Amino acid sequence: MVCEEEMLIEKVCELYEQISSLESLKPSKNVDMLFTQLVLTCIPPSPIDVTKLDKTVQEIRSHLIRLCGEAEGHLETHYSTILGSYDNPLDHLNIFPYYSNYLKLGLLEFTILSQHCTHVPTKIAFVGSGPLPLTSIVLASNHLPSTTFHNYDMDPLANSNATRLVSSDPDLSKRMVFHTTDILDVSNGLKEYEVVYLAALVGMDKEGKNRIIDHLAKNMAPGALLMLRSAHGARAFLYPVVEPCDLRGFEVLSVFHPTDEVINSVVIARKYPQPVPMHSLDQQGLASMILPNKCSEIQAFNPLNHGNIIEELAIEEQLL
Ligand SMILES: C[S@+](CC[C@H](N)C(=O)[O-])C[C@H]1O[C@@H](n2cnc3c(N)ncnc32)[C@H](O)[C@@H]1O
Protein backbone atom coordinates (compact mmCIF):
# COMPACT_ATOMS: atom_id res chain seq x y z
CA MET A 1 0.00 0.00 0.00
CA VAL A 2 2.79 2.41 0.98
CA CYS A 3 4.55 1.53 -2.23
CA GLU A 4 1.39 2.25 -4.24
CA GLU A 5 1.08 5.61 -2.51
CA GLU A 6 4.70 6.43 -3.24
CA MET A 7 4.21 5.55 -6.89
CA LEU A 8 1.13 7.76 -7.06
CA ILE A 9 2.95 10.71 -5.50
CA GLU A 10 5.91 10.19 -7.83
CA LYS A 11 3.63 10.16 -10.88
CA VAL A 12 1.75 13.29 -9.72
CA CYS A 13 5.06 15.11 -9.08
CA GLU A 14 6.36 14.08 -12.49
CA LEU A 15 3.22 15.44 -14.19
CA TYR A 16 3.44 18.58 -12.06
CA GLU A 17 7.00 19.18 -13.34
CA GLN A 18 5.79 18.95 -16.93
CA ILE A 19 2.62 21.02 -16.39
CA SER A 20 4.39 23.78 -14.49
CA SER A 21 6.97 24.18 -17.22
CA LEU A 22 4.34 24.73 -19.94
CA GLU A 23 4.38 28.22 -21.43
CA SER A 24 0.61 28.43 -21.56
CA LEU A 25 -2.25 26.45 -20.03
CA LYS A 26 -4.64 27.36 -22.85
CA PRO A 27 -6.15 24.28 -24.55
CA SER A 28 -3.67 22.52 -26.86
CA LYS A 29 -2.79 18.92 -27.63
CA ASN A 30 0.00 18.87 -25.05
CA VAL A 31 -1.97 20.66 -22.30
CA ASP A 32 -4.99 18.37 -22.83
CA MET A 33 -2.80 15.26 -22.79
CA LEU A 34 -1.00 16.20 -19.55
CA PHE A 35 -4.19 17.14 -17.66
CA THR A 36 -5.94 13.99 -18.89
CA GLN A 37 -3.03 11.93 -17.54
CA LEU A 38 -3.18 13.82 -14.25
CA VAL A 39 -6.91 13.23 -13.87
CA LEU A 40 -6.59 9.53 -14.76
CA THR A 41 -3.80 9.19 -12.18
CA CYS A 42 -5.88 10.79 -9.43
CA ILE A 43 -9.28 9.20 -10.10
CA PRO A 44 -8.77 5.64 -8.74
CA PRO A 45 -9.79 5.25 -5.08
CA SER A 46 -6.75 5.74 -2.86
CA PRO A 47 -6.32 5.76 0.92
CA ILE A 48 -3.89 8.68 0.60
CA ASP A 49 -4.39 11.47 3.17
CA VAL A 50 -3.17 14.72 1.64
CA THR A 51 -2.81 16.35 5.06
CA LYS A 52 -0.05 13.86 5.90
CA LEU A 53 2.11 14.62 2.86
CA ASP A 54 5.56 16.07 3.46
CA LYS A 55 6.01 19.83 3.08
CA THR A 56 7.43 19.71 -0.47
CA VAL A 57 4.56 17.55 -1.75
CA GLN A 58 2.04 19.80 0.09
CA GLU A 59 3.47 22.79 -1.77
CA ILE A 60 3.32 20.94 -5.07
CA ARG A 61 -0.32 20.04 -4.36
CA SER A 62 -1.24 23.70 -3.60
CA HIS A 63 0.45 24.84 -6.79
CA LEU A 64 -1.11 22.03 -8.82
CA ILE A 65 -4.63 23.01 -7.66
CA ARG A 66 -3.97 26.56 -8.90
CA LEU A 67 -2.65 25.29 -12.23
CA CYS A 68 -5.72 23.03 -12.62
CA GLY A 69 -7.96 26.02 -11.83
CA GLU A 70 -6.16 28.18 -14.38
CA ALA A 71 -6.39 25.47 -17.06
CA GLU A 72 -10.08 24.86 -16.25
CA GLY A 73 -10.75 28.60 -16.63
CA HIS A 74 -9.03 28.66 -20.07
CA LEU A 75 -10.89 25.53 -21.18
CA GLU A 76 -14.25 26.99 -20.14
CA THR A 77 -13.51 30.34 -21.86
CA HIS A 78 -12.44 28.50 -25.02
CA TYR A 79 -15.64 26.45 -25.24
CA SER A 80 -17.89 29.28 -24.11
CA THR A 81 -16.52 31.43 -26.96
CA ILE A 82 -17.16 28.66 -29.52
CA LEU A 83 -20.66 28.03 -28.12
CA GLY A 84 -21.39 31.77 -28.18
CA SER A 85 -20.93 31.79 -31.94
CA TYR A 86 -23.99 29.53 -32.45
CA ASP A 87 -27.51 30.95 -32.79
CA ASN A 88 -28.66 28.59 -30.04
CA PRO A 89 -25.64 27.81 -27.87
CA LEU A 90 -27.66 25.59 -25.53
CA ASP A 91 -28.30 23.13 -28.36
CA HIS A 92 -24.55 22.46 -28.66
CA LEU A 93 -23.41 22.06 -25.05
CA ASN A 94 -22.22 18.53 -25.77
CA ILE A 95 -19.22 19.89 -27.70
CA PHE A 96 -17.71 20.57 -24.24
CA PRO A 97 -15.69 17.42 -23.48
CA TYR A 98 -16.83 17.23 -19.82
CA TYR A 99 -20.51 18.00 -20.44
CA SER A 100 -21.57 14.46 -19.46
CA ASN A 101 -19.72 14.88 -16.12
CA TYR A 102 -21.76 18.03 -15.43
CA LEU A 103 -24.98 16.17 -16.29
CA LYS A 104 -24.05 13.49 -13.74
CA LEU A 105 -22.87 15.95 -11.11
CA GLY A 106 -26.02 18.07 -11.60
CA LEU A 107 -28.28 15.04 -11.13
CA LEU A 108 -26.27 13.88 -8.11
CA GLU A 109 -26.43 17.32 -6.46
CA PHE A 110 -30.13 17.67 -7.24
CA THR A 111 -30.85 14.23 -5.70
CA ILE A 112 -28.91 15.14 -2.56
CA LEU A 113 -30.56 18.56 -2.36
CA SER A 114 -34.05 17.03 -2.73
CA GLN A 115 -33.43 14.88 0.34
CA HIS A 116 -32.87 17.91 2.53
CA CYS A 117 -35.16 20.49 0.97
CA THR A 118 -38.85 20.29 1.77
CA HIS A 119 -39.99 22.44 -1.18
CA VAL A 120 -38.76 23.58 -4.58
CA PRO A 121 -36.44 26.57 -4.02
CA THR A 122 -37.49 29.81 -5.72
CA LYS A 123 -34.03 31.40 -5.78
CA ILE A 124 -30.65 29.71 -5.82
CA ALA A 125 -27.25 31.41 -5.82
CA PHE A 126 -24.29 29.83 -7.62
CA VAL A 127 -20.97 31.30 -6.51
CA GLY A 128 -18.13 31.05 -9.03
CA SER A 129 -20.28 30.29 -12.09
CA GLY A 130 -17.50 31.06 -14.61
CA PRO A 131 -17.75 31.51 -18.40
CA LEU A 132 -19.51 28.16 -18.82
CA PRO A 133 -22.06 27.96 -15.97
CA LEU A 134 -22.97 24.37 -16.67
CA THR A 135 -24.15 23.47 -13.19
CA SER A 136 -26.74 26.26 -13.19
CA ILE A 137 -27.75 25.49 -16.78
CA VAL A 138 -28.18 21.75 -16.07
CA LEU A 139 -30.12 22.35 -12.85
CA ALA A 140 -32.32 25.05 -14.40
CA SER A 141 -33.05 23.05 -17.58
CA ASN A 142 -33.34 19.49 -16.27
CA HIS A 143 -34.23 19.56 -12.58
CA LEU A 144 -35.54 22.90 -11.34
CA PRO A 145 -37.60 24.39 -14.18
CA SER A 146 -39.24 27.12 -12.10
CA THR A 147 -36.22 28.24 -10.03
CA THR A 148 -34.26 31.43 -10.74
CA PHE A 149 -30.46 31.10 -10.62
CA HIS A 150 -28.34 34.04 -9.51
CA ASN A 151 -24.81 33.41 -10.74
CA TYR A 152 -21.94 35.26 -9.10
CA ASP A 153 -18.51 35.70 -10.66
CA MET A 154 -15.91 38.38 -10.02
CA ASP A 155 -14.61 38.16 -13.59
CA PRO A 156 -16.63 40.44 -15.95
CA LEU A 157 -15.44 38.54 -19.03
CA ALA A 158 -16.66 35.25 -17.56
CA ASN A 159 -20.09 36.78 -17.02
CA SER A 160 -20.35 38.32 -20.48
CA ASN A 161 -19.47 34.94 -22.04
CA ALA A 162 -21.94 33.16 -19.76
CA THR A 163 -24.75 35.67 -20.49
CA ARG A 164 -24.30 35.11 -24.24
CA LEU A 165 -25.00 31.37 -23.78
CA VAL A 166 -28.50 31.88 -22.40
CA SER A 167 -29.50 35.18 -24.06
CA SER A 168 -31.25 33.54 -27.03
CA ASP A 169 -33.24 31.14 -24.84
CA PRO A 170 -36.62 32.65 -23.91
CA ASP A 171 -36.87 30.70 -20.63
CA LEU A 172 -33.27 30.62 -19.33
CA SER A 173 -32.57 34.24 -20.27
CA LYS A 174 -35.18 35.15 -17.63
CA ARG A 175 -34.17 32.60 -15.00
CA MET A 176 -30.38 33.02 -15.19
CA VAL A 177 -29.19 36.27 -13.62
CA PHE A 178 -25.51 37.25 -13.56
CA HIS A 179 -23.81 39.40 -10.94
CA THR A 180 -20.23 40.59 -11.43
CA THR A 181 -18.77 40.87 -7.96
CA ASP A 182 -16.47 39.20 -5.47
CA ILE A 183 -18.78 37.16 -3.23
CA LEU A 184 -16.90 38.55 -0.21
CA ASP A 185 -18.47 41.93 -1.09
CA VAL A 186 -22.02 40.54 -1.02
CA SER A 187 -23.61 40.55 2.42
CA ASN A 188 -27.35 41.30 2.69
CA GLY A 189 -27.97 39.98 -0.83
CA LEU A 190 -27.04 36.47 0.34
CA LYS A 191 -30.00 36.36 2.74
CA GLU A 192 -32.38 36.06 -0.23
CA TYR A 193 -31.34 32.54 -1.18
CA GLU A 194 -32.76 29.29 0.12
CA VAL A 195 -29.80 27.45 -1.38
CA VAL A 196 -26.25 28.61 -2.14
CA TYR A 197 -23.91 26.54 -4.33
CA LEU A 198 -20.18 27.09 -4.00
CA ALA A 199 -17.96 26.07 -6.94
CA ALA A 200 -14.92 23.95 -6.09
CA LEU A 201 -12.45 26.59 -7.23
CA VAL A 202 -13.76 29.50 -5.18
CA GLY A 203 -11.15 29.64 -2.43
CA MET A 204 -8.24 27.62 -3.75
CA ASP A 205 -6.44 26.97 -0.48
CA LYS A 206 -7.59 26.22 3.05
CA GLU A 207 -7.35 29.83 4.17
CA GLY A 208 -9.16 31.21 1.10
CA LYS A 209 -11.89 28.56 1.29
CA ASN A 210 -12.43 29.13 5.01
CA ARG A 211 -12.70 32.89 4.47
CA ILE A 212 -15.49 32.28 1.92
CA ILE A 213 -17.26 29.72 4.16
CA ASP A 214 -17.12 32.05 7.18
CA HIS A 215 -18.51 34.88 5.03
CA LEU A 216 -21.39 32.65 3.88
CA ALA A 217 -22.00 31.53 7.47
CA LYS A 218 -22.25 35.16 8.53
CA ASN A 219 -24.51 36.32 5.68
CA MET A 220 -26.72 33.48 4.50
CA ALA A 221 -30.27 33.26 5.85
CA PRO A 222 -30.65 31.08 8.97
CA GLY A 223 -31.74 27.60 7.88
CA ALA A 224 -30.57 28.09 4.25
CA LEU A 225 -28.69 25.24 2.58
CA LEU A 226 -25.10 25.32 1.36
CA MET A 227 -24.02 22.87 -1.36
CA LEU A 228 -20.30 22.70 -1.78
CA ARG A 229 -17.69 20.66 -3.52
CA SER A 230 -14.71 18.97 -2.03
CA ALA A 231 -12.28 16.22 -3.04
CA HIS A 232 -11.38 12.84 -1.59
CA GLY A 233 -8.27 10.62 -1.77
CA ALA A 234 -5.89 11.41 -4.62
CA ARG A 235 -8.55 13.66 -6.20
CA ALA A 236 -7.41 16.18 -3.59
CA PHE A 237 -4.38 16.83 -5.85
CA LEU A 238 -6.87 18.45 -8.26
CA TYR A 239 -9.31 20.35 -6.02
CA PRO A 240 -9.36 21.85 -2.51
CA VAL A 241 -10.68 19.71 0.34
CA VAL A 242 -13.43 20.96 2.65
CA GLU A 243 -13.68 19.04 5.93
CA PRO A 244 -16.87 19.03 8.04
CA CYS A 245 -14.94 20.91 10.76
CA ASP A 246 -14.28 23.77 8.30
CA LEU A 247 -18.02 24.43 8.12
CA ARG A 248 -18.28 26.60 11.19
CA GLY A 249 -21.80 28.01 11.53
CA PHE A 250 -23.32 25.11 9.55
CA GLU A 251 -24.77 21.74 10.43
CA VAL A 252 -23.21 19.21 8.04
CA LEU A 253 -26.01 17.05 6.63
CA SER A 254 -24.09 14.68 4.40
CA VAL A 255 -20.85 14.12 2.52
CA PHE A 256 -20.78 12.03 -0.63
CA HIS A 257 -17.63 10.85 -2.40
CA PRO A 258 -18.22 9.58 -5.95
CA THR A 259 -15.77 7.00 -7.20
CA ASP A 260 -16.62 7.32 -10.88
CA GLU A 261 -15.61 10.04 -13.34
CA VAL A 262 -17.43 12.70 -11.31
CA ILE A 263 -14.36 14.12 -9.58
CA ASN A 264 -15.84 16.29 -6.84
CA SER A 265 -17.27 15.16 -3.54
CA VAL A 266 -20.57 16.83 -2.65
CA VAL A 267 -21.14 18.30 0.80
CA ILE A 268 -24.50 19.65 1.94
CA ALA A 269 -24.84 21.74 5.08
CA ARG A 270 -27.52 23.86 6.71
CA LYS A 271 -26.86 27.22 8.29
CA TYR A 272 -27.78 27.06 11.96
CA PRO A 273 -31.17 28.66 12.57
CA GLN A 274 -29.84 30.83 15.42
CA PRO A 275 -26.97 33.31 14.98
CA VAL A 276 -23.89 31.84 16.69
CA PRO A 277 -22.11 34.29 19.04
CA MET A 278 -18.60 35.04 17.73
CA HIS A 279 -16.91 34.03 21.01
CA SER A 280 -18.29 30.50 20.71
CA LEU A 281 -17.09 29.98 17.13
CA ASP A 282 -13.95 28.12 18.21
CA GLN A 283 -15.91 25.75 20.39
CA GLN A 284 -18.43 25.44 17.61
CA GLY A 285 -15.69 24.47 15.16
CA LEU A 286 -15.04 21.56 17.49
CA ALA A 287 -18.76 20.92 17.88
CA SER A 288 -19.34 20.67 14.15
CA MET A 289 -16.60 18.07 14.00
CA ILE A 290 -18.29 15.95 16.60
CA LEU A 291 -21.95 16.70 16.17
CA PRO A 292 -22.77 15.69 12.60
CA ASN A 293 -23.55 12.24 13.88
CA LYS A 294 -26.10 13.67 16.28
CA CYS A 295 -27.80 16.16 14.09
CA SER A 296 -27.30 14.96 10.55
CA GLU A 297 -28.22 11.99 8.55
CA ILE A 298 -25.34 9.92 7.26
CA GLN A 299 -26.06 8.90 3.73
CA ALA A 300 -26.32 5.15 3.74
CA PHE A 301 -27.39 4.81 0.16
CA ASN A 302 -25.92 5.29 -3.25
CA PRO A 303 -28.26 7.68 -5.06
CA LEU A 304 -26.99 7.33 -8.59
CA ASN A 305 -24.75 4.33 -8.49
CA HIS A 306 -21.72 6.63 -8.30
CA GLY A 307 -19.43 3.84 -7.14
CA ASN A 308 -18.91 3.32 -3.44
CA ILE A 309 -19.65 5.80 -0.76
CA ILE A 310 -16.86 6.46 1.67
CA GLU A 311 -18.34 8.29 4.60
CA GLU A 312 -16.01 10.72 6.30
CA LEU A 313 -18.37 11.19 9.17
CA ALA A 314 -18.12 7.55 10.17
CA ILE A 315 -15.05 8.36 12.21
CA GLU A 316 -16.99 10.89 14.28
CA GLU A 317 -19.69 8.27 14.78
CA GLN A 318 -17.14 6.05 16.48
CA LEU A 319 -16.17 8.91 18.79
CA LEU A 320 -19.61 9.23 20.33
C1 LIG B 1 -13.74 28.43 -13.52
S1 LIG B 1 -14.66 27.98 -12.12
C2 LIG B 1 -16.29 27.84 -12.68
C3 LIG B 1 -17.08 26.67 -12.09
C4 LIG B 1 -17.82 25.74 -13.02
N1 LIG B 1 -18.27 26.36 -14.24
C5 LIG B 1 -19.00 25.04 -12.36
O1 LIG B 1 -20.10 25.02 -12.90
O2 LIG B 1 -18.78 24.48 -11.27
C6 LIG B 1 -14.43 29.22 -10.93
C7 LIG B 1 -14.90 30.69 -11.15
O3 LIG B 1 -15.00 31.26 -9.84
C8 LIG B 1 -14.74 32.65 -9.91
N2 LIG B 1 -14.40 33.13 -8.55
C9 LIG B 1 -13.31 32.77 -7.80
N3 LIG B 1 -13.33 33.40 -6.61
C10 LIG B 1 -14.47 34.15 -6.58
C11 LIG B 1 -15.05 35.03 -5.61
N4 LIG B 1 -14.46 35.27 -4.43
N5 LIG B 1 -16.22 35.65 -5.92
C12 LIG B 1 -16.82 35.43 -7.13
N6 LIG B 1 -16.31 34.62 -8.08
C13 LIG B 1 -15.16 33.99 -7.82
C14 LIG B 1 -13.64 32.77 -10.92
O4 LIG B 1 -13.61 34.06 -11.51
C15 LIG B 1 -13.98 31.63 -11.93
O5 LIG B 1 -14.64 32.13 -13.05
Automatic annotation (TrEMBL):
GO molecular function: nicotianamine synthase activity
Documented EC number(s): 2.5.1.43
One Pfam family in the UniProt entry: NAS
Gene Ontology biological process terms from the UniProt entry: nicotianamine biosynthetic process
Enzymatic class: transferase
InterPro entries in UniProt: Nicotian_synth (IPR004298), SAM-dependent_MTases_sf (IPR029063)
Catalytic activity line of the entry: 3 S-adenosyl-L-methionine = nicotianamine + 3 S-methyl-5'-thioadenosine + 3 H(+)
Keyword entries, A-Z: S-adenosyl-L-methionine, Transferase
Role noted for this protein: Synthesizes nicotianamine, a polyamine which serves as a sensor for the physiological iron status within the plant, and/or might be involved in the transport of iron.
Similarity comment: Belongs to the nicotianamine synthase (NAS)-like family.
Record-given protein name: Nicotianamine synthase
